[in-house]
Amino acid sequence: MLETPRLYLRRFRTEDVPTLASYRSDPEVARYQSWTVPVSAEAAASLVRRFTAGDPERPGWFQYAVQHRAEGCLIGDVGVNLHENRMQADLGFTFATRWQGRGHATEAVCAVLRELFERRGLRRVSAECDARNTRSARLLQRVGFQREGLRRQHTWIKGEWTDDLLYGLLVDDWGRRGAGRDSPGAAGATQDAPRR
Fold first, then answer.
1. Going from the N-terminus, what domains does the chain have, and what CATH number goes with each?
2. pLDDT (tens digit, 9 = 90+) per residue, 93-107?
3. Beta strands in the chain (DSSP E)
4. What region does 31 belong to: left with phi over 0, alpha with psi -120 to 50, or beta?
5. What is the mean pLDDT of the chain?
6. Which DSSP state fits 39?
């Protein structure tokens, strides 16, 4: 488990199913994501079973449940796809509308990056997002990611072609900038597509 002043990043639990189904059924949350709404309780339960079976130390996707410490509720999730070489990963994130715009996603992402770069010794973390998803793009840039490319009309999703923004963050950049150390989470420590 990872901790920040306001958050716990932990493994998903069965009791998270209703909240996961609720925020992933929000059309605003799902707008740039690969899934369609609504997300049924059965579909959410299947996701939680898959998430709980994951291992953050092994290649493949691992989804952190992001829990608000003071209120004790699930507010979002952060996914990490560790590559086979265990030296790089892909990152994605999803947060309930109610908890957006308060720095919680930035805090959670910084905690995960700190874990990947400083404890586990990864060299690179990549992320991509729909080019229309300006909030996610700003978050990635805020925590130190560099925009590395634009894939025009690359993804067919929800009946339309969309552009993808590609981002990368190297361990050297993270260390040089002291990335995340002045964020709210600095004191603490999906199979979903990473289009966040």
1. 2-177 (3.40.630.30)
2. 999 999 999 999 999
3. 2-3, 7-10, 60-68, 74-82, 88-95, 124-130, 146-157, 160-170
4. alpha
5. 91
6. -
